[in-house]
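Below is how a single chain appears once it has passed through the pipeline. First comes the sequence as given, then the structure the pipeline wrote out for it. We keep one example in the README because the format questions we get most often are answered faster by looking than by reading.
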Amino acid sequence: MPSKRSPGSDSSFGSGREEKRPKLDDGVFEGLSMYIIQSKIDPEELDLLYSLAENNGAEVQTDIQKADVIVTSISMRRRLERHVSWEVAV
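Resulting structure:
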């Protein structure tokens, strides 16, 4: 699948190629629980986020209330509040 990035971009996000994915130290997220808000994240990047989290020690939550970290691409407060209360987001 072709990348949405311009040729010559040194970023590997969205490339879909395993060998180009960023490498992290094993366990860098050890002990963290994460919730990923899927809105506005394309499927390839979503797959990458889940892989990075799980392969580096994070527990991906299905309950936002149990998460230590919330990962999102949403930047507008009103849109974010569709997924999580502002008190939780802050």
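The two ends are 37 Å apart (CA to CA).

See the next section for the split statistics.
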